[in-house]
Amino acid sequence: MNSADDIRLHVYLARCGVASRRACEGIIKSGRVRVNGRIMTTLGYKLHRGDEVTLDGKAVVPEKTKVYLALNKPPAYLCAAADRWGRALAQDLFMHQIPQRLFHVGRLDYLSSGLIFFTNDGNFARIVSHPSYEVEKTYFVSCAQTVPDKLLVGYRAGVEIDGVVYTLKHFHRIGEKRVELTLAQGKNREIRTVFKAFGVTIKTLKRIRIGTVTLDGIGPGKFRRLTTKEVQWFMHLTPVTKDKDR
C-alpha cells in the first residue's frame, strides 16, 4: 500500500478498481480479502503504510490509468462479475478491448437495457450512484397496458410499497402506454416494483440518460469512453442531501 494516510479497507479496494464501495463491503464480508496474509472480514478496518492487500490471492494495487466507459447494455446481459448459470455478462461487450479491470456503476437488471457506466475509479462510482448526490437518471418505459395518471401522479408525490417510499422526480407521457421517467434517488428495481404495484406490466425498460450523458451515438452493445468534460461534471458535484456513507 502506497498511501501515507490511513484508509478504510473497502475504500482502498474501490480506489483500486475492484468494485464500488458498497460492493467491496460485501467482498470483505465473504472472506475473499487478506491483509498481510490474514483474512480480513472486519468492515471499517483501517490500512496503514506497508500493508499488503490481496483479493482471491492476487495483490490489489491502485490502478494507474482511470477508465470511464458508457455502455449501451442490451437486454439479456447481466451486470455482474460472474454468473454461475453462464449467462452473458455486460462486461463481455468490452473486456477484450479494455485491459483494465472495470466494474459497473449501479446496475440495470437482466431484462432492462440502456446506459450504464463502467469504471475503475471508486470515487467516480460513488458520486454517480450514491443517493446523496441525486444524479438524475432518465428511463424510457413501454407497457402492455395504459399507464394510468394515478400511477404517475402518485409516484411523483411518493408511493409507499412494503415499507419503502419511492419518489419520481419528473415524468413525460409519450403515449398511452409509453412514458419517460426521471429519478434522482433510484432504488433497486424501483420502476418495476412501482408499476407492478399498480398492476401495469412493463414490456421494455431502457435507461437513456445519466446526468449529462445520454445514449446518443452509442448503438446497442456498443460503448464509448466518457470525455474529460463529462467525467469532471460528475466529479465536481457536491452532496444535495446528507452523505451517510462511511
Task: Summarize the structure in short.
The protein has helices at residues 9-15, 21-29, 122-129, 149-157, 190-197, 228-235, and strands spanning 7-8, 33-35, 38-39, 46-47, 53-55, 58-59, 68-73, 103-105, 113-119, 137-143, 159-161, 164-166, 170-173, 178-183, 202-210, 213-214, 223-225. The protein is an alpha+beta fold.
Core attributes:
246 residues; alpha+beta; Structural Genomics Hypothetical 15.5 Kd Protein In mrcA-pckA Intergenic Region, Chain A; Alpha-Beta Plaits; 3 domains; nine-stranded mixed sheet; four-stranded antiparallel sheet; 17 strands; 20% helix; globular
Helix content: 10-25%
Tally the structural domains. 3
| CATH topology title of the largest domain | Alpha-Beta Plaits
Please count the helical segments.
6
Q: From the coordinates shown, what is the CATH architecture of the largest domain? A: 2-Layer Sandwich
What is the approximate shape?
Answer: globular
- Could you spell the SSE succession in H and E letters? EHHEEEEEEEEHEHEEEEHEEEH
Gyration radius over CA: 19 Å
Plain-language structure description:
The protein has three domains: 7-59, RNA-binding S4 domain (Structural Genomics Hypothetical 15.5 Kd Protein In mrcA-pckA Intergenic Region, Chain A), CATH 3.10.290; 68-131 and 212-235, Alpha-Beta Plaits, CATH 3.30.70; 136-210, Alpha-Beta Plaits (2-Layer Sandwich). Strands 7, 8, 9, 10, 13, 14, 15, 16 and 17 form a nine-stranded mixed sheet that branches. The chain has a four-stranded antiparallel sheet with strand order 3-2-5-6, with no helix packed on it. It is built from six helices and 17 strands. Helices cover 20% and strands 27% of the residues. The mean pLDDT is 91. The two termini are 20 Å apart. Helix 1 (9-15) crosses helix 2. The chain is α+β, with helices and mostly antiparallel strands.
